[in-house]
Write a structure and sequence with these properties.
Length: 388
């Protein structure tokens, strides 16, 4: 705690100027101390060390440097020759349904692999690791009959990532590492019918989505996530359910941690699957007051650039991007090398389009290392200079 207090004190001094006395005090009950959970009194500035302080820390770093998000989890898991037994482990040894391919469950059955992947990305230069929970809702896990394991897999995924993040932060206190609890879109959509013959039909209700995301959010928070990342959004209504659930969990737990939102432009039309343009998507979620807005998946860096330009111009939030390693080939594989991807992301950096950048499908620690090395040479996007 002492090292973190010192970093927070340094941040406050930079932002507030040298005060006669600055004291950082723990506040384990998370009780607010005056406005913004801080108070100025008797020439001293007291900072309450609740989760809002983590928000302040991340935001202050984003003002000074581009943060690096990690790369693909699935791509790295595929490097291991895993069998059905690896996915089952002892806990699910007699489970009735096949589990191979359910990557999220590996946090329970092969945590050593997940921990190793997080470490490889941190070693490559990542500042933020995503939890292995992209399909960690009761909705997505229903396909495997593992709804009852959802809390555990989210909790353990966050716990594993947090342990690795803390290890690296202790080794490199000048470069704190953070954990983003990943909330994927689920395999159902609230805005569209899966039946072309019945356009009014919905396979899921808004409340069912809220219930699923509430459980996931609670487990990720309990496991130690520093950030919520609602990502790969193809249906804004699904995302609104996730954001509503996150807000409910934060209020009920008395903890306020930052939220990242990342949408997906599905094709050359420049729209999400539910039909929104980039600007419309931004407007639809801005009320939730996230820390950042961004785009990921579906497209490579080259194709994503024009849509990031829209966010850069229209958003008063930090902007993130984690594109795929190019577009998939005819076999569904990604051929873009780390050098090729970095060359394309260089345009993001030269135009000051992003504050957070990383990789999605097909990316590896080698991709992240190339991006991190490049990003260290550039200044982050300045919000106050870009809102149009």
């Amino acid at each position: 705690m002492l090292a973190y207090q010192e970093r927070l004190r340094d941040w406050a001094l930079r932002r507030l100027g040298n005060l006669p006395s600055l004291v950082v005090v723990p506040n384990p009950t998370y009780e607010p101390i005056g406005k913004d959970k801080s108070v100025v009194s008797n020439n001293s500035f007291w900072i309450s060390l609740n989760l809002n302080a983590i928000d302040l820390s991340i935001r202050s770093i984003l003002q000074e440097k581009i943060l690096i998000l990690d790369g693909a989890m699935g791509t790295m898991i595929q490097r291991h020759d895993l069998t059905e037994e690896d996915f089952r482990g002892e806990r699910f040894k007699n489970h009735a349904l096949p589990l191979k391919g359910n990557n999220d469950i590996l946090s329970l059955t092969r945590p050593d692999i997940i921990k190793e992947i997080h470490a490889l990305y941190f070693e490559a230069g990542a500042d933020i690791a995503e939890t292995n929970t992209f399909s960690g809702t009761t909705i997505a896990q229903e396909d495997y009959g593992l709804e009852d394991a959802v809390y555990d897999l989210n909790y353990e995924s966050a716990k594993i990532a947090k342990e690795v993040a803390q290890e690296f932060t202790e080794k490199e206190p000048h470069k704190p590492r953070f954990v983003a609890g990943s909330l994927g879109p689920t395999n159902k959509t609230a805005s569209m019918s899966p039946d072309v013959n019945d356009p009014g039909y919905r396979a899921i209700t808004f409340q069912e989505l809220v219930d699923a995301y509430t459980l996931q959010s609670k487990a990720l928070l309990d496991g130690g996530a520093d950030i919520f990342l609602v990502e790969t959004i193809f249906d804004t209504l699904n995302a609104k359910a996730a954001l509503f659930a996150i807000n409910e969990v934060k209020e009920s737990e008395g903890k306020d941690i930052p939220v990242m939102i990342s949408g997906t432009i599905t094709d050359a039309s420049g729209r999400t699957l539910s039909g929104q343009t980039t600007e419309a998507f931004l407007i639809s979620i801005r009320h939730s007051n996230p820390m950042s807005i961004g785009l990921n998946c579906a497209l490579g860096a080259k194709e994503l650039r024009q849509y990031l330009q829209v966010l850069d111009k229209k958003s008063d939030l930090f902007v993130s991007a984690h594109p795929n390693a190019g577009l998939p080939n005819e076999f569904g594989q990604y051929d873009e090398t780390p050098e090729q991807m970095a060359d394309q992301i260089k345009e993001f950096l030269e135009e000051s389009l992003v504050n957070i950048v990383g990789g999605c499908c097909g990316t590896t620690p080698e991709h992240i290392q190339a991006i991190a090395n490049l990003a260290s040479q550039y200044q982050p996007r300045k919000i106050e200079q870009h809102v149009g």
